[in-house]
Automatic annotation (TrEMBL):
Its cofactor is Ca(2+). This is Sulfatase N-terminal domain-containing protein. Residues 23-398 form the Sulfatase N-terminal domain. Keywords: Calcium, Hydrolase, Metal-binding, Signal. Residues 1-19 form the signal peptide. GO terms for molecular function: arylsulfatase activity; metal ion binding. InterPro entries: Alkaline_phosphatase_core_sf, Sulfatase, Sulfatase_CS, Sulfatase_N. Belongs to the sulfatase family.
Length: 562
C-alpha cells in the first residue's frame, strides 16, 4: 500500500513538474496598430511603457510581417500558419450574416495547444466567421480550439459608435443609389409601355428591396454589435464605454482560474482598439498628444500592463511567453466624424492597411518576452512572419503541426534564443486579397531582402496611402507591366527600383519567378476564396438579431415551464 502511495506521489510530482514546465502563453494582438505608434519602434510622443518593457525584457522583432494587410486574412493565417489563400479566407468578413468562416478542416493554433493540455481562451475580436446556417454558430471560436470565448464575433467598426459609415466606406451606398435608380426607372417605363398594374407591382417590389437594403445599412451597427460569452449573446448592441475594462477583467479572471486549476494557460487577447470607432475612456480620453487615436494606443498599453500585473501577482510572469503585435499596418488616412485623423502611423514605411505588398501595410511592431528562456534586450532584424507563431509555439510545447497540408510558417525559436542568426524563410509571399502582389526573397549570406512587386497601389495623390480602406479593397492596386525589384534592407521606403536587366538582379528575378511557379503549384486544389456579397447584409435569417430573439424566447419558455 505504502509503495503504491509512493508511486502515485512520484507520478503526481512528475506531472506537476511537467505542467509547470509548459510556459503560459499570452498573445496580445492589437487591431490596426501601426509600427510607428510604439515607443520601442521609434515613437517619441506616444507613451507605451508596458509594450516597450516587453521589448526591453525580451526580443524585439524589427522586421516582422503580417501575412495580410486586412483583419480576416491576417488572423486566419496567424491561426493556421497558412496563407489565407489556402484556407478560402483572403477577403474580409463584413457582416455576421456572412455564411463564411475559417473552415473546420483547418488545424488551428489553439487546437494545437489544447491537444497539449492548455486551457485556451479568446477574449475580444474573432472576425473569422459566425453562423453558416440559421442559428448554428458554426464558425464559433469554441469549435476552433478555444475553451472559452468572450468578445465580438465580428470586429469593432465605426457603426458601433452610431456613425453608420461602414457602408459608405466599403462603397455599398453608391451601389444602392444606382440600384434604386435602375429599379424605379424600369418600373416607371414598364408601367407606361406595357401595363399600369405590372408597373405598380414592380415599383412596390423595388421599394421593398431598396427598403430592405436601407434598413440593413442603418441597423448594421446594431445587429453586428453582439457581445458573446461562449455561445450566449450577453449584450446587443455592445456597450463600448465599458468594454475595455471588461475585456481586461475577463483576461485576468481566466489566468487566475486556470492557474488555480494548475493548467497551463493560452490567453489570446484580441484587442478591439485601435480600430475605429475609437472609444478610449478616462483617464486616457483626451490625455495623449494624438487625439482619440493616441488615447486609444495609450489605453491599450495600460491594458497590457494590467494583464502583466496579474501574471506578476501570481508569480508566473517568468515562465510566461508574452507576444505583442498588431494584425497589420495602420490605416493612415482614417478619420473620425470630426475629420480628425484616427489611423495609425507606419513610421518610415510607405503604404497602409489594405496594401498587402507595401511595407506600411504589413510591417508590425512585434515583441516577445519569456524571461525563463529568451534573452533580454535582443533585436532580431531578419524577416519573420506571423505565420511563424504556430510552428514556434508547437516547437516549444511539443505540439503537432499538420504534415499533410502546406504549412507556410517556420519555427523561429532558434532565432529568438539567438542560436540562429538567419531567417528560416527563403521566400515570403505577399497577397492583396486573393492576388499574389509581391514576393520577398532573402538569398543566403547576402544581407539583402529583395522584394519583387507585381502590382502598385493607387494612393491618394501626394500621399503614400489609400484615400480610404474601401478604395483599397474595391479599386485595388494596378498591375505593373514590368515588376519592380527593391532591396528592402537598404531601401526600406522602396523608392529606388533596381535594374533587373543587369546582374545580379536579373538572376534574382529569375529565382523569384521560379519560386512563384512552385508556390502556385502548391495552390492547385486549394479551397475557393470567399468574396463578400451585398445580399449577405439583408439575410435576416443568419443575423445575430434572430439569434438574440430566439435566445430570449427560449429563456422565456424555460421560465414558463419551471
Ligand atoms: C507617433 O504616433 C503618432 C500617432 O500615430 C504619429 O502621429 C507620430 O508621427 C508618431 N511619431 C513618430 C516619431 O513616429
Ligand atoms: C455602458 O456602460 C457604462 C459604464 O459601465 C454605463 O455608465 C452606461 O450606462 C452603459 N450604457 C448603456 C447604454 O447601457
Amino acid at each position: 500500500m505504502d509503495r503504491l502511495l509512493c508511486q502515485l506521489c512520484a507520478l503526481c510530482l512528475c506531472a506537476g513538474v511537467l505542467a509547470s514546465e509548459k510556459p503560459n502563453i499570452v498573445i496580445f494582438l492589437v487591431d490596426d496598430l501601426g509600427i510607428g505608434d510604439i515607443g520601442a519602434f521609434g515613437n517619441d510622443t506616444l507613451r507605451t511603457p508596458h509594450v516597450d518593457s516587453i521589448c526591453e525584457n525580451g526580443v524585439k522583432l524589427d522586421h516582422d510581417l503580417a501575412a495580410a494587410s486586412l483583419c480576416t486574412p491576417s488572423r486566419a493565417a496567424l491561426m493556421t500558419s497558412r496563407y489565407a489563400i489556402r484556407t478560402g479566407m483572403s477577403s474580409v468578413i463584413t457582416s455576421l450574416m456572412s455564411p463564411q468562416g475559417l473552415p473546420t478542416s483547418e488545424h488551428t493554433l489553439p487546437q494545437m495547444l489544447q491537444e497539449k493540455g492548455y486551457a485556451t481562451a479568446l477574449i475580444g475580436k474573432w472576425h473569422l466567421g459566425w453562423n453558416r446556417q440559421l442559428l448554428d454558430q458554426y464558425y464559433s471560436p469554441l469549435k476552433r480550439g478555444f475553451d472559452y470565448f468572450f468578445g465580438l464575433p465580428l470586429s469593432n467598426v465605426k457603426d458601433f459608435g452610431g456613425k453608420q459609415e461602414i457602408m459608405v466606406d466599403i462603397g455599398f451606398t453608391g451601389k444602392l443609389y444606382k440600384l434604386s435608380a435602375i429599379c424605379l426607372s424600369t418600373s416607371l417605363i414598364l408601367s407606361r409601355l406595357i401595363n399600369k398594374k405590372i408597373g405598380v407591382t414592380m415599383t412596390i417590389m423595388s421599394l421593398i428591396l431598396i427598403g430592405n437594403f436601407l434598413f440593413a445599412f442603418k441597423t448594421y451597427g446594431i445587429w453586428n454589435s453582439a457581445l458573446i460569452r461562449n455561445d450566449r449573446i450577453v449584450e446587443m448592441p455592445l456597450n463600448l464605454t465599458s468594454i475595455t475594462q471588461r475585456l481586461i477583467e475577463e483576461g485576468q479572471n481566466f489566468i487566475k482560474s486556470q492557474h488555480a486549476a494548475e493548467k497551463p494557460v493560452f490567453l489570446f487577447m484580441s484587442w478591439l482598439h485601435v480600430h475605429t470607432y475609437m472609444h478610449p475612456q478616462p483617464p486616457f480620453k483626451g490625455a495623449s498628444q494624438h487625439g482619440p487615436y493616441g488615447d486609444a494606443v495609450e489605453e491599450t498599453d495600460w491594458a497590457v500592463g494590467q494583464i502583466m500585473d496579474t501574471l506578476k501577482q501570481l508569480q508566473i510572469l517568468d515562465n510566461t511567453l508574452f507576444y505583442f503585435s498588431s494584425d497589420h499596418g495602420g490605416d493612415k488616412l482614417e478619420h473620425d466624424e470630426e475629420g480628425r485623423l484616427v489611423g495609425g502611423w507606419n513610421g518610415l514605411f510607405r503604404g497602409n492597411k489594405g496594401d498587402g505588398s507595401q511595407e506600411g501595410g504589413i510591417r508590425v511592431p512585434t515583441c516577445v518576452q519569456w524571461p525563463a528562456k529568451l534573452p533580454r534586450r535582443t533585436l532580431v532584424s531578419e524577416p519573420t512572419s506571423q505565420l511563424d507563431l504556430m510552428p514556434t509555439l508547437a516547437s516549444i510545447v511539443g505540439g503537432r503541426m499538420s504534415t499533410v497540408r502546406s504549412i507556410d510558417g517556420k519555427d523561429i525559436l532558434p532565432l529568438l534564443t539567438g542560436d540562429e542568426t538567419r531567417t528560416p524563410h527563403d521566400f515570403i509571399f505577399h497577397y492583396t486579397g486573393d492576388k499574389l502582389s509581391a514576393i520577398r526573397y532573402m538569398p543566403e549570406e547576402s544581407g539583402a531582402v529583395f522584394k519583387l512587386h507585381y502590382v502598385w497601389p493607387q494612393w491618394e495623390p501626394g500621399t503614400d496611402s489609400w484615400a480610404s480602406i474601401g478604395a483599397a479593397v474595391f479599386d485595388g492596386p494596378i498591375l505593373l507591366p514590368n515588376p519592380l525589384l527593391f532591396d528592402v534592407a537598404r531601401d526600406p521606403r522602396e523608392e529606388t527600383p533596381l535594374d533587373t536587366n543587369i546582374e545580379p538582379y536579373a538572376s534574382i528575378v529569375k529565382c523569384i519567378e521560379e519560386a512563384k511557379l512552385n508556390h502556385e503549384r502548391s495552390l492547385i486544389g486549394a479551397r475557393p476564396n470567399y468574396k463578400p456579397n451585398p445580399l449577405e447584409f439583408i439575410n435576416p435569417l443568419r443575423s445575430t438579431f434572430v439569434d438574440y430573439a430566439w435566445q430570449k424566447l427560449s429563456d422565456y419558455w424555460s421560465y414558463l415551464i419551471q
